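Apologies for my clumsy wording, but can you show me some protein sequence, whichever is easiest, together with the matching structure tokens, please?
=====
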Amino acid sequence: MAASAVPSAYLNNLPSLPDWLNKGDNAWQMTAATLVGIQSVPGLVILYGSIVKKKWAINSAFMALYAFAAVLLCWVLWAYKMAFGEKILPFWGRAGQALAQDYLVNQAYLPASAHYYRNGTLETAMITPFYPMATMVYFQFVFAAVTLILIAGSLLGRMNIKAWMLFVPLWLTFSYTIGAFSLWGGGFLFQWGVMDYSGGYVIHLSAGIAGFTAAYWVGPRMNRDRECFPPNNILLTLAGAGLLWMGWAGFNGGDPYSANVDSPLAVLNTHVCAATSLLVWTILDVVVFGKPSVIGAVQGMITGLVCITPGAGLVQGWAAIVMGFCSGSLPWLTMMVVHKKVAILHQVDDTLGVFHTHAVAGLLGGLLTGLLAEPTLCSYFLPGDGAPSYVG
């Protein structure tokens, strides 16, 4: 219908957009969240279903699919506010549902600064992104979901699906929300000035440690599976890995909470570090084992993506290359050499090596961020009168 044909009375009664809404920021944040969601569904669904033996393909894929759905429902009913709501403990927020329309359409807000004036007042009370709270709830949900799905990587090949169905809401409630609130939601680590740009600690370190611990308690696969566990489809493994890599543009590019000058830097650093890490891992495979490995290249890609995550928008391009060299070599060393020499690492059946690719790489990235972060870039991420006292 032409605009001239629309009655003026109808146009006058249309609800106006709020003054604070930035359509560009809102569109980018929704896009970034969807890219992260694609990492899980279908990315990790495909990766898990194709990297295991054929007999475990459906179970492994379904573990990822179930976790994505279960986390969403738990997230909106109680977990989001435990991670980003009103503080009840220095490391935990008050549980509450995030489904009310009058809550979701209001402007989003998050804690912003740990800097205080000399008179003791808070310099900047909160960040107020220029989009609705519903966008923030959606964006933070996909991060929570991918964390649980990463943990599943340590348990593939023997996890009972009923046990997994119970584990997902419990770990989300009593572990993930604590880390998220402490570092991102205004908790004690946030107040100390700790920066975790996009989840090197909250997501990857916690997933790696949790996966390793869960694998210890669940127990190992049967000996014949541990000794011979070839992927059932290499091409689909690469397809899932590719979705994971490309989705990381939203993973790191969305964490400035706007389409600002820091967002494209984070995206570029992410891809530079991943590519460097993949190449370094592949070269080490050739030098030590005499030939490259497709699975090794995927692992190198993942360690690069994980390593850059805590500092993607906080470091310069040259630092992303340095981090890529480190993430392609040190996790390779722990997986290929140290793993065989340390009894506890060898005894625990971490199916996809999540401890090495996420816990080791995530901790490495956090430490390197502390060394390589650029103060000016830090001020883009955490507003204040200067760089925080601790970064990483």
